[in-house]
Amino acid sequence: MSEGIARRTVLGQIAAATLIGPMGGPMGLAQAQHVHDAVAADTKSTGVYPPKALTHHEFETLRALSEMIVPGATKGGAAEFVDILTAQNQELLAIYTGGLAWLDQAMKREYGTDFLSSKPADST
User: What is the value of pTM for the model shown?
Assistant: First the structure.
């Protein structure tokens, strides 16, 4: 990747490409590695990733949901990857935050609590 391209620019391009999906082709390995490198840099000082776009609750909900869907997703940094991309693309952020809000509302209607606070049997 050219050193003349700003990190924010590259992340914004990746986030935009994520919305295009199959029409624009899959994300390249170099692009994905760039996002993972950005997460590592943001985690380096404290050892904990500070969410950029998602609230703490949204981020933790995404982590839990990702782990349920794909065991090992937490170790792979799936939620961090999504957060970095959504920080660069408001449309993508709205998709994720809307979906997470819908999940919490549905859980509250059905079980009286949000997804994170629910019993394991109620969240599957």
Answer: 0.71
What's the CA angle centered on 68, arms 80 and 24, to 5 degrees? 55
Give me the pLDDT at residue 44, please.
72
Q: Are 55 and 93 in contact (CB under 8 A)?
A: no
Task: For residue 18, give every residue at least 6 positions away whose Cβ sits within 8 Å of its Cβ, in sequence order, or none.
Answer: 27, 85, 89, 92
CB-based contacts of 88, cutoff 8 Å, min separation 6: 8, 11, 12, 14, 15, 16
74 contacts: CB under 8 Å, gap ≥ 6: 63, 66, 67
Q: What is the DSSP letter of 32?
A: H
